């Protein structure tokens, strides 16, 4: 795959809209931690639904929601999915379950990470993401997953979490690849999404911590291959975030591609009213297929 910035003005692909969506049902839901982790986010009370889109807030009990791949089409690939929500809530309905179900129908096990809200405890989301990767590996035989083909996908603030995992993994939690949608990348005041910074860092919002969580500064040649997708008119997370991460990947000779759609704004997730919804799905499958060309998967 060639490294390139590709502005996706691809009106000739309208026929893709006729392709049916095939998805799988939720297979199981499991606790992320067998015993409560040491660090607590300090949130009390039940989870709540907030806003017109029904984001899940006040999350303090993390789980994995597993959508196992269609057995007849299983590629052995799995993706850990981190929904966005500014590190204050989770867009499970838009950026979690629908993506996982669709991926499963394409032969890719989708695992939604319902991670704890940091509430200023900045280590918590990354620890949950690392644990999610470890759990997928532990269940790889049972779920028919190739441990060399486990990636991470993230949206907005969940994209920041995914990018943090891609640049701060350990041997047991290393993703094979990343797919980032309109991600928060930088905590530099010029480009940062302020709500995400405040919710993740809280009172520890020092310049040192902002630099630490500016993921464009943390890329190395060992960072896994990464695909980025966003819209040019995103008014919530500046497109410069994705461009800086892409440029850092290229400078480190990491396989990458960046697709900037001309419209769509922020937070389109799996919404089929997004003008480039079908193209977006095709790009994801093509990206994964090109990582393992011997077992390509095309949309059905």
TrEMBL record:
Record keywords, A-Z: Hydrolase
Superkingdom: Bacteria
Keyword presence, Zinc: no
Pfam family membership, one: Peptidase_S9
Gene Ontology terms for molecular function: hydrolase activity
Domain Peptidase S9 prolyl oligopeptidase catalytic: 131-279
Xref: PANTHER family: AB HYDROLASE SUPERFAMILY PROTEIN C4A8.06C, PEPTIDASE S9 PROLYL OLIGOPEPTIDASE CATALYTIC DOMAIN-CONTAINING PROTEIN
UniProt-recorded name of the protein: Peptidase S9 prolyl oligopeptidase catalytic domain-containing protein
Organism: Alistipes indistinctus YIT 12060
């Amino acid at each position: 795959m060639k490294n390139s910035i590709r502005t996706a003005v691809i009106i000739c692909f309208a026929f893709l809209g006729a392709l049916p969506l095939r998805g799988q049902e939720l297979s199981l839901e499991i606790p992320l931690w067998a015993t409560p982790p040491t660090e607590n986010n300090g949130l009390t009370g039940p989870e709540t639904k907030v806003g017109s889109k029904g984001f899940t807030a006040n999350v303090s009990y993390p789980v994995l929601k597993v959508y196992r791949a269609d057995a007849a089409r299983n590629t052995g690939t799995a993706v850990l999915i981190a929904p966005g929500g500014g590190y204050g809530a989770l867009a499970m309905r838009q950026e979690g379950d629908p993506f996982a179900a669709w991926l499963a129908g394409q032969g890719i096990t989708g695992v939604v990470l319902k991670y704890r809200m940091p509430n200023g405890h900045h280590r918590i989301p990354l620890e949950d993401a690392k644990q999610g990767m470890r759990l997928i590996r532990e269940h790889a035989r049972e779920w028919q997953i190739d441990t060399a083909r486990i990636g991470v996908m993230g949206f907005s603030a969940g994209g920041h979490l995914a990018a943090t995992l891609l640049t701060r993994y350990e041997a047991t939690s290393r993703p094979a690849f990343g797919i980032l949608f309109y991600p928060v990348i930088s905590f530099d005041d010029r480009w940062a999404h302020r709500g995400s910074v405040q919710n993740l860092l809280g009172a520890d919002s020092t310049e040192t911590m902002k630099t630490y969580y500016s993921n464009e500064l943390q890329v190395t040649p060992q960072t896994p291959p990464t695909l980025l997708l966003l819209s040019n008119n995103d008014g919530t997370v500046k497109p410069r975030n994705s461009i800086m991460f892409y440029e850092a990947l290229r400078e480190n000779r990491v396989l990458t591609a960046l697709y900037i759609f001309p419209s769509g704004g922020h937070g389109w997730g799996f919404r089929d009213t997004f003008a480039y919804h079908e193209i977006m799905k095709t790009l994801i499958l093509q990206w994964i297929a090109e990582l393992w060309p011997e077992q390509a998967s095309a949309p059905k």
